Amino acid sequence: MPQYFGKLPTTEQPWNSLQSVQTVKELENHIYFNCGSQTLVINAVAPNLIRVRMSPTGALSPPRSWAVTQEENWPSVALTVQQHPDSTEIITDRMRVAIAHHPCRLTCFDPHDQPFAQDIEPGISWRQGAVANWKKIETDEHFYGFGERTGLLDQRSQVRTNWTTDALDYDILTDEMYQAIPFFMALRPGVGYGIFFNTTFWSQFDLGASQPGVWSMETRGGELDYYIIYGPEPAEILATYTQLTGRMPMPPKWALGYHQCRWSYESETEVRELAQAFRDRRIPCDVIHLDIDYMRGYRVFTWSPKRFPDAAQLIADLRENGFKTVTIIDPGVKYEPEGDCPVFDEGSDRDYFVRNPDGSTFHGYVWPDKAVFPDFLNPDVRQWWGDWHKTLTDIGVAGIWNDMNEPAIENRPFGDDGHKIWFPLEALQGPPEERATHLEVHNLYGYQMAQSCYQGLRRHRPNQRSFVLTRSGFAGIQRWSSVWMGDNQSLWEHLEMSLPMLCNMGLSGVAFVGCDIGGFAGNATAELFARWMQVGMLYPLMRAHSALNTARHEPWVFGDRVERICREYIELRYQLLPYLYSLFWEAATTGTPILRPLLYHFPNDPQTYHVQDQVMLGPSLMAAPVYRPGVQCRAVYLPSGVWYNWWTGEQHQGPGYILADAPLERMPMFVPAGAIVPMGPVMQYADEHPLDCLTVRVWPVLGLETLHKTFVLYEDDGQSFDYETGSRGITTYTLQQSARELVFNISARTGSWTPPPREVVIEVLGLGEERFMDDGGDRQFRFLL
User: Fold this and answer.
1) Could you tell me if 770 and 781 are in contact, meaning their C-beta atoms sit under 8 angstroms apart?
2) Cα–Cα distance, 53 to 65 (Å, whole number)
3) Mean of pLDDT values over 467-488
4) Angstrom distance (rounded) from CA 409 to CA 419
């Protein structure tokens, strides 16, 4: 009872529910349902994609979605509208949407007449300042995605809020995070669908936490607007969702290598010593990140004249030694009206900083102390901010790391006892003709900072790919940036949590993701760091990072044994680059995640719905990492089929569990029968030398009657945008196996890009190998069983 705990009783404002349909009108694939003062509109965007909008006032807002690509570019959908006395049905060749009239309720059906996304009491409802929708949780239904989320892989029975927040010291109970991506997919055997809640306002999903068997979505925007995507499997749901919100561009190949970071490598001398240590110890590394201390007093787009007196020469020397340099940028611009600071002076003169509702310039406190903040909702500001990156790229900076962009602000100088704030919710942002309150666009701040950065880098280096990293973002952030999971901790629990976090990001359309290896805050033990480096080898973004006043987290600081383990797994990462790069191409063209939970490939195996401590790296590698100290073996679930131990070649039959050896030197890894994995030699950095030997490893199944598998190898120059106009090489490998022989086919390479001269080695486990010089032609090899 609330009075026992000092709380006053509250009475919630009642919800108003959508009532009976009075008239129905069809207009160009839009079906309008008049419910008195309210309007419900159903739009078939694609055969498996339905948009639902409801306005409590009857007047729909003009379109201004920042996440969705233009719907008018989608081909027209063939649909049938059937009117019944008490309902209306909208039918495409992939799904059926039934609208009951009394009261107005929506239910979707798959081609087998199985219901999904079914409205349940009170259906679509609204009250002052909010609109919501309640739907039924079907038996054995599970929920994934939701962007950046802590805890378990399956989010059922959780409340998930979409409001970008500096989630410092987050843990498994944290709700609001750095990213706000109001998208999820629901899965049960035979049925899968996705929901994209098309609102930038504060929003929330309740997945049966308040009422078992019911999930709901609520927004503080003025109308309901969401998309229903029918699968039935995760791959098709994601393909449609990323067609709707955009897909990632190809990153430079070096960005797939190992990244080393710390807050901070404080001087040019320290950075040079770090780089030389990697090369002397023969530990591959491509990227060194510079945190805030490279700047002059934390002023953006500056360099410290004492710690980095000749940044251009440093970056050139690093580049000569095979390293790329990535610098951090924060949105806070130091307030110094008489400080001869061009960024501040230009922004002030052009009225480019966020203002309070009373017209005064908003200020808060971040690293440079009192600071003002660009209004990234304004395209002129985004152009201006993007152009400022030229000061960095002109001296050779290869990538930008966008931080503190939720935005993270305090009301007092850092170091004082202040508290976090954000812009006033009534503050107006954007160009004069399209003003929006911060209440509507808060979740877009980091997203549009990353957009500004990406587009600026593209303008300044029109045919050289750059690397962009962001902490905060919104749905569609994959179009502009990679993402890391913010300030994690050097705890075994955070190592364990990293893979479900990254898998749910991948299931939210964001494929290029990573967590800080070793943990950002705190001190990793030698054992924890070794296990984390093994897991980090799987991350699409492989970056180690550590915080100020913590122990160093470079691969050699924990002793010779851990250094050998780190070297081995970083080397394996570089050997897998041909395979990984092909997965990035798949993500860029279809929206497929790079790191995948088992349910992605086995959606009709309910056992995989809760497996969060095993992952698939693409279709051909499964890893079962160790997440606890002292563990020397662990249970591993193998889905249906034959699986091989990556290290020993031992064969296992799924489905079922096995006990896998896992000494500190070994992360259990498995490959399914028919797996095709192209690999290269160990390099100290991604483009140390041309790929002169490509090894294609193949795992057959002895005694299996038939088997048919394919893998598409993607290649390009790794650095330019020429791939967009056809300068790429695509080779399809096909494995066909009967009871007596295995036939391995190599298709003729397509595309105008040609690799340098190289030998190709086809290794078929247990059956031998074939070698040839690659001329791009088609070939066939036969192996007798």
Assistant:
1) yes
2) 13
3) 98
4) 8
Q: Say if residues 160 and 204 touch (Cβ distance below 8 Å).
A: yes
Q: How far apart are CA 413 and CA 653, in angstroms?
A: 60
- Among the listed residues 403, 440, 554, 613, the single catalytic one is 403
Specify whether the CB–CB gap between 512 and 540 falls below 8 A: yes
Which stretches of 189-293 are assigned E, i.e. beta strand?
191-197, 203-207, 214-219, 224-230, 258-260, 287-290
403 assigned to active site = yes
* DSSP category for residue 600: H
Q: In this structure, what DSSP letter does residue 18 have?
A: P
Quick: pLDDT tens for 512-561. Answer: 999 999 999 999 999 999 999 999 999 999 999 999 999 999 999 999 99
pLDDT of residue 73: 77
> Would residue 345 show up in a list of annotated catalytic residues for this protein?
no
Number of Cβ within 10 Å of residue 413's Cβ equals 11
Identify the weakest region by mean pLDDT among 300-309, 347-356, 664-673, 739-748.
Answer: 739-748
Greatest C-alpha distance within the chain: 82
- Report which of 60, 64, 55 is spatially closest to residue 435, judged by C-alpha positions: 64
Catalytic residue flag (residue 406) = yes
599, 602, 605, 606 alpha-carbon torsion, rounded to 10°:
10
**Structural contact between residues 218 and 41, judged by C-beta atoms closer than 8 angstroms:** no
Q: How far is CA 390 from the centre of its chain?
A: 27
Confidence at 72, pLDDT banded by 50, 70, 90: low
The residues with which 766 forms a beta bridge, in sequence order, are none
Residue 702 CA to residue 697 CA, distance in Å, equals 16
* pLDDT beyond 80 at 307: yes
pLDDT at 1: 47
pLDDT of residue 525: 98
User: Measured between alpha carbons, how far is 223 from 498 in angstroms, rounded to an integer?
Assistant: 35
The residue annotated as part of the active site, out of 406, 440, 516, 774, is: 406
Residue 68's pLDDT is 86
